[in-house]
Design a protein that fits this description.
The complex is a heterotrimer of chains A (360), B (256) and C (336).
Chain A lengths: L2 H21 L6 E2 L5 E3 L5 E3 L7 E3 L2 H9 L11 H6 L25 H7 L3 E4 L6 H9 L3 E3 L6 H14 L3 H24 L7 E5 L6 E3 L3 H5 L3 E2 L13 E3 L2 H7 L3 E5 L11 H6 L7 H4 L3 E4 L8 H15 L9 H13 L4 H9 L8
Parallel strand pairs in A: 4-5, 5-6, 7-9, 7-11, 11-12
Antiparallel strand pairs in A: 1-2, 2-3, 8-10
Helix pairs in contact in A: 6-7, 7-12, 12-13
Chain B lengths: L2 E10 L2 E10 L4 E5 L6 H8 L10 E3 L2 E2 L5 H7 E4 L11 H6 L14 H13 L15 H14 L4 E4 L8 H17 L3 E5 L3 H7 L2 E6 L2 E6 L1 H4 L2 H8 L3 E6 L2 E6 L4
Parallel strand pairs in B: 3-8, 3-9, 6-7, 7-8
Antiparallel strand pairs in B: 1-2, 1-4, 4-5, 9-10, 11-12
Chain C lengths: L1 H25 L9 H9 L10 H35 L12 H16 L5 H20 L6 H25 L2 H11 L8 H20 L1 H7 L3 H6 L4 H23 L5 H13 L3 H25 L7 H20 L5
Helix pairs in contact in C: 1-13, 2-3, 3-8, 3-11, 3-12, 3-13, 4-5, 4-6, 4-7, 4-11, 5-6, 5-11, 8-11, 9-13, 12-13, 12-14, 13-14
Classes of the chains: A alpha/beta (360), B alpha/beta (256), C mainly alpha (336).
Chain lengths: 360, 256, 336
C-alpha cells in the first residue's frame, strides 16, 4: 500500500516521457527517393501532385507562409481560424477577403464546398489528428499534415520546403535569411554581454493563468528562462500543460507573460487581474510590476509575428541592452518584408490595445 | 372513533366506487369482503386519505376527512399496506419508529419517547427481540407483524389493514387475526380490514361489508347476512354453508 | 455483541472527524515546500504577533491551500449528501446528484459563458443559473405526476439529453481556446479555488447540506413507498420539493465553482451504507464527512501525483470505482 503511489508515479512519468519523446521530434518531413513522396508530421506517406495550382490550407501557419511567398493566388479557401481570429486578415491581400470558408473549429468540413473548389493539395495541422486521413480517404485529394510545432528551425525548413513546391526557392531563401539575421542580431548582442542575468519567466497562455507551454522558443532566444521547461506536456502533440497557482509561487518568476493575442473584449486574463489577485502578491514579478502581454502562439506561428515577438521579448528581458531597438520601426519592417504591409505592426497595436504598452 | 361515509364517489377510468351510506363504529372489527376488483383496497385508500375524495363524503368522529391535514389525519388513522416495500434494509426498530412521523416537526428526528413507544409496540406484537434485526431477514408473517407494530407506534385509534393475511400460512394467518381482535378489545381501536377468506372473516369480525363492482351489496353482522344466496350473487359461484358448533364452513362451487 | 457496538460507534466517530484531520494534514502538501512546523507557524502567525513568516508562506496557506481544501471539503460534502438524499427520496440507490439534468444544464451554462458571453458573465454564475433552470424545468414538465417518480427521472434524462445537444451546438461554434477552457471546466477541477468561490458558493452549499442534515430522519420515511409516506402523515409533495430544492442548490453551487465531478454522490453514500447500514440519521452526516474526506484525498493526489494538475473529476472516477468494486466484493451482502 505504501509502495503503490510511488510505483504509480513512476509508471505515470514513464508513460508521459514516452508521449513526450514521441511528440517532440519536431519536424520530420523527409524527402524519400521519389521526388514527390513525403512523410508528414503524423508519419503518413503522401504523394504530392506534379503541379500545385489550387491549394486549400486549413493550417493558418501554411496560409501565412504561402502569402509571404507571394502565392496567395493559389489559395482557394480559408479555415475558421483565419476567418475569425486573424486580426491582420482584413488587411493582407484584397483577393483573400472573398475566399469561401471551408472549415469550422470542431474539425467539421463543408465537404461539398471543398469538392467544388477542386484543390490539388490540402494542408492540415497535426493538432487535428484524424482530419487529414479522413480528408484524403473521402476526397482522394493529397492531404499533408505539416506544421512547425512551435520550433523556429522547423518553421524555416517549412518555408524553404513550401518554397520548393511552389517554385519560390529564392523568395523563401530571402525570407529565411532576413529571419535568421534578425535572430542573430539578438543572440549575438546577448552573447557579448557577460555575465548575462537571464530572467526567469512564467507564461500564462490560452486564456488561463495556470495553462503554460513547456516549450516556447522565443523566450529562450530573447535571453530568458521558461520555468515550465522542466515539465512535460499534458497531451500528445501539444506543448501545453496545467500547473497550480502554488507551483507559480514556488517558482517565484521574475517576469510573467500573458497570452495577449486576443482582442481586448475576448481576454480572460489581464495584467490588471494579475495585480489584483492576492494569491499572487508575493511573487517577484507582481511586486516589481513585471507582468506583460506577449503574442504567444498564434496557430503555431505567424512567421512575421514570431520574429517581432522575439525582439519584443528581448527588450522586456534586457531593456538596458536593447535600448536602441525601435520596436515599432522594426515591427513594421518585418510585416513589410513578409506581407508587403507597410503598417502591419502599428495596426496590430491598435487592434490589441495592450494596456501596459509595447516595451518602452 | 366512528367513521361515517355519505355519498362517497371515486372514479378510475373503468371503475367507479359509490357508497351512499355506511358507518363503522368504535371498538369493532369490520371486514370488507368481495371478489377481486370489487374496490376493497380503493375503499380503504379513500378512507385513509391516500386517494383524493370529494369533501363531505367521509367523516371521522363528525369531522370531514378532507379538512384534516396529513399529520392530523395520520394521528387518527393508520393504514397498513398489504406488503412492506422498502428498497433500503432498515433495522426493525428504525422501521417501526417511522410510525412517529406524524408527531414530529419537519426537522426533528425522533427522541427518546418515540424510541420507547416503538419498543413498546414491538413488545406488544411479541417481537421485542427483533429490534436490531434487518427487514430483509424477516419472514412474511413477521413482516406483517412489524407493519402492525408501526401502526401501533403511530397511536391512531383507527386502523385500516389491506389484506393482512394474504399469502400467509394458517398459523400466521390466525396469529395476525388474533392480534387484530386483541387490538380492538384491549385498545378499543376501530379496525377495518379486507380479507379473501370468508370463513375467518365471519369468525373474527363483528361486521361484514360485501362489496361488488364498487357498490355495497350488503352489510351487517356475519351471522345475519352471510347467506348462500347472497354469496352466490356476489361471487357468481354457488356456495353451501355448513354450520358446525357456531362456526360457518363454506363449500365453494358446490353442485346440489 | 457489546464490543461490536462500541467498535462501530468508534468507526462512526472516526468517520465524522476524518475530514478535519485530513484538512490539517493536507495543508502541508503541495509543490511549494513547506515543513509541518512552517505550516503550524503560518497558521498561528495571524493570532500571535511574535511569529513572523515570509509573505509567500501565508499566501500559500491562507490564499491557496486553505480555500482549496475548504472548497474540496464543502463540495465533497455537498455532492455526497445530495446524492444520498436523492437516493432515499427516489427510492433508488442508482440515482446520483445530477439525475434531474443538473450537470448538463451547468455544463451548457459554463459553455455559453466561456464561448459567447465573456468576462461580464462568469461561467460560475451561468452554470449555477442553468443548473437550477434544468432542474426547475424537469419539475415543471413532470408537473402534477408527483406520484410517478419514474416520470420525474425520465424527464431528467430527457432534459440531460436536451442540454447535451445544446452544449454540442455551442462547442460547434467555439474557438479552440474556448474549447480547451470548457473541457478543463467539464472535467472538474479545484485548482483555481479562491475565497471568492467559497464566499459565493459556500453559503448555498452549506444551506443545502444543513437542510438535508435536518431532514435526515425524514428521509428514512420518504424512502418508503409513496402510499406509506402519505399514510404516515407526511406532506409528500412539499417534502419532496424541499429535498430536491436543497440537493439542487447544494449541487448546483458546488458544480458552478468546480465543474462536474462525477461519481462522488453515487459512491460515497454506498460506502457509508456498507459500513453503518441504511439509516439516514447516520448516512447523511457520514456522507458529508466521508465525501469531504474523499474529495480532499483526491485533491491531494491531483496536486502531488504529477507535474501538471490532473482534473479531479478524472481522479474521483479512477479512485472511486475500483474502491467501490473492492468493497462490493468484500461486503458480499446487501447493505442498502
Amino acid at each position: 500500500m505504501v509502495n503503490r503511489p510511488k510505483k504509480f508515479y513512476l509508471m505515470m512519468s514513464l508513460l508521459l516521457l514516452e508521449i513526450c519523446l514521441f511528440s517532440l521530434p519536431s519536424f520530420s518531413i523527409q524527402k524519400s527517393k521519389h521526388p514527390f513522396k513525403i512523410r508528414d508530421n503524423l508519419q503518413r506517406e503522401v504523394v504530392l501532385p506534379h503541379q500545385i495550382k489550387r491549394i486549400l490550407s486549413l493550417q493558418p501557419e501554411i496560409t501565412r507562409i504561402l502569402i509571404a511567398l507571394g502565392q496567395e493566388k493559389k489559395l482557394i479557401g480559408i479555415d475558421y481560424f483565419i476567418h475569425r481570429y486573424d486580426h491582420l486578415y482584413p488587411l493582407l491581400k484584397p483577393r483573400l477577403r472573398d475566399l469561401p470558408l471551408v472549415s469550422l473549429s470542431s474539425e467539421s468540413i463543408n465537404w461539398e464546398l471543398l469538392l467544388r473548389l477542386k484543390p490539388d493539395l490540402i494542408f492540415t495541422s497535426p493538432s487535428e489528428t484524424h482530419l487529414a486521413s479522413s480528408l484524403q480517404k473521402k476526397t482522394g485529394i493529397p492531404t499533408l499534415v505539416l506544421s512547425s510545432q512551435g520550433r523556429l528551425t522547423s518553421l524555416l525548413e517549412e518555408i524553404k520546403l513550401i518554397g520548393q513546391w511552389v517554385n519560390q526557392e529564392k523568395r523563401a531563401a530571402y525570407l529565411c535569411g532576413f529571419f535568421q539575421d534578425k535572430i542573430k542580431m539578438v543572440v549575438s548582442t546577448l552573447a557579448r554581454t557577460a555575465p548575462l542575468q537571464k530572467p526567469r519567466v512564467y507564461l500564462a497562455f490560452w486564456s488561463s493563468l495556470t495553462r503554460t507551454p513547456v516549450d516556447y522558443e522565443p523566450v529562450k532566444v530573447a535571453g530568458g528562462i521558461n520555468l515550465a521547461e522542466e515539465l512535460l506536456p499534458e497531451d500528445l502533440g501539444t506543448v501545453g500543460t496545467v500547473v497550480s497557482v502554488e507551483k507559480i509561487l514556488a517558482w517565484n518568476p521574475d517576469i510573467i507573460l500573458l497570452h495577449g493575442n486576443y482582442l481586448p473584449e475576448e481576454r480572460k486574463i489581464t495584467p490588471a487581474l494579475v495585480f489584483q489577485d492576492k494569491r499572487l502578491s508575493a511573487i517577484r514579478a507582481v511586486k516589481n510590476k513585471q507582468v506583460y502581454y506577449t503574442f504567444g502562439f498564434w496557430y503555431w506561428w505567424d512567421p512575421a509575428q514570431v520574429l517581432v515577438e522575439i525582439m519584443y521579448l528581448a527588450k522586456i528581458f534586457h531593456p538596458e541592452i536593447f535600448t536602441r531597438i525601435d520596436l515599432e520601426k522594426e515591427g513594421n519592417q518585418v510585416y513589410q518584408i513578409f506581407y508587403s504591409l507597410p503598417h502591419g505592426f502599428t495596426y496590430l497595436q491598435q487592434r490589441l490595445k495592450w494596456e501596459n504598452g509595447w516595451s518602452k | 372513533m366512528n367513521i361515517k361515509i355519505k355519498q362517497l364517489k371515486f372514479n378510475y377510468p373503468n371503475f367507479s366506487l359509490e357508497i351512499s351510506d355506511l358507518s363503522l363504529t368504535e371498538g369493532r372489527v369490520t371486514t370488507i369482503v368481495g371478489p377481486n376488483g370489487a374496490g376493497k383496497t380503493t375503499l380503504l385508500k379513500c378512507l385513509s386519505g391516500l386517494l383524493t375524495i370529494p369533501p363531505g363524503s367521509v367523516f371521522i368522529n363528525g369531522s370531514d376527512l378532507t379538512t384534516l391535514k396529513g399529520g392530523q389525519r395520520a394521528q387518527l388513522i393508520s393504514y397498513v399496506p398489504q406488503e412492506m416495500t422498502s428498497i433500503f434494509n432498515y433495522k426493525v426498530l428504525d422501521f417501526v419508529l417511522m410510525g412517529r412521523a406524524a408527531y414530529l416537526p419537519l426537522f426533528s428526528p425522533p427522541g427518546e419517547k418515540d424510541q420507547q413507544l416503538a419498543r413498546e409496540a414491538l413488545t406488544y406484537i411479541g417481537l421485542n427481540n427483533y429490534a436490531q434485526r434487518s427487514l430483509f431477514e424477516l419472514s412474511s408473517g413477521e413482516r406483517r407483524l412489524v407493519l402492525i407494530a408501526r401502526a401501533l407506534a403511530q397511536q391512531a385509534q383507527i386502523l385500516f389493514l389491506d389484506e393482512p393475511t394474504t399469502f400467509l400460512d394458517p398459523k400466521n394467518e390466525i396469529e395476525i387475526l388474533q392480534l387484530i381482535k386483541k387490538l380492538s378489545l384491549e385498545m378499543k381501536k376501530t379496525i377495518v380490514l379486507t380479507l379473501h377468506n370468508l370463513e375467518v372473516a365471519a369468525a373474527y369480525s363483528e361486521r361484514l361489508v360485501f362489496l361488488k363492482k364498487g357498490r355495497v351489496i350488503a352489510w351487517g353482522e356475519p351471522a345475519e347476512i352471510m347467506t348462500e344466496s347472497l354469496l352466490a350473487k356476489i361471487y357468481d359461484v354457488s356456495f353451501k354453508i355448513i354450520d358446525w358448533q357456531g362456526h360457518k364452513f363454506l363449500l365453494k362451487g358446490h353442485q346440489e | 455483541m457489546k464490543s461490536k457496538f462500541i467498535s462501530s460507534q468508534r468507526l462512526t466517530w472516526i468517520m465524522l472527524l476524518l475530514p478535519f484531520g485530513l484538512l490539517l494534514f493536507s495543508l502541508g502538501l503541495g509543490p511549494y515546500p513547506l515543513s509541518p512546523s512552517d505550516v503550524i507557524k503560518t497558521l498561528l502567525s495571524p493570532f500571535i504577533s511574535a511569529i513572523n513568516v515570509p509573505e509567500a508562506f501565508s499566501v500559500i496557506i491562507f490564499r491557496i491551500r486553505l480555500p482549496r481544501l475548504c472548497l474540496a471539503f464543502l463540495v465533497g460534502a455537498a455532492l455526497s449528501v445530495s446524492g444520498a438524499s436523492l437516493q432515499a427520496l427516489f427510492k433508488n440507490p442508482l440515482i446520483n446528484e445530477y439525475i434531474l439534468g443538473l450537470s448538463s444544464g451547468a455544463a451548457f451554462g459554463a459553455a455559453l459563458s466561456l464561448v459567447f458571453l465573456g468576462q461580464n458573465f462568469p461561467p460560475q454564475l451561468a452554470a449555477f443559473i442553468l443548473a437550477v433552470v434544468a432542474v426547475g424545468g424537469v419539475l415543471l414538465i413532470a408537473g402534477h405526476s408527483e406520484t410517478h417518480l419514474i416520470t420525474l427521472i425520465l424527464t431528467g434524462v430527457i432534459m440531460t439529453a436536451f442540454f447535451s445537444a445544446l452544449l454540442s451546438l455551442v462547442e460547434y461554434f467555439a474557438s479552440p481556446y474556448a474549447l480547451q477552457s470548457l473541457f478543463f471546466w467539464l472535467m472538474g477541477n479545484l485548482s483555481l479555488a479562491t475565497w471568492k468561490d467559497i464566499i459565493l458558493a459556500g453559503p448555498l452549499m452549506t444551506f443545502g447540506i444543513i437542510v438535508l442534515l435536518l431532514l435526515r430522519w425524514r428521509l428514512n420515511v420518504l424512502s418508503l413507498s409513496d402510499d406509506q409516506v402519505k399514510a404516515l402523515g407526511i406532506n409528500l409533495r412539499l417534502e419532496k420539493i424541499l429535498v430536491i430544492l436543497a440537493a439542487t442548490l447544494a449541487t448546483a453551487a458546488a458544480t458552478s465553482v468546480v465543474g462536474i465531478i462525477g461519481w462522488v454522490g453515487l459512491i460515497v453514500p454506498h460506502l457509508v451504507r456498507m459500513m453503518v447500514g441504511p439509516d439516514n440519521r447516520l448516512v447523511i452526516p457520514l456522507s458529508a464527512t466521508v465525501g469531504a474526506s474523499f474529495l480532499i484525498l483526491a485533491d491531494d493526489l491531483t496536486r502531488n501525483l504529477a507535474s501538471f494538475e490532473i482534473p479531479i473529476g478524472i481522479l474521483t472516477s479512477l479512485i472511486g470505482i475500483p474502491l467501490f468494486i473492492v468493497l462490493l466484493k468484500k461486503t458480499q451482502r446487501v447493505w442498502l
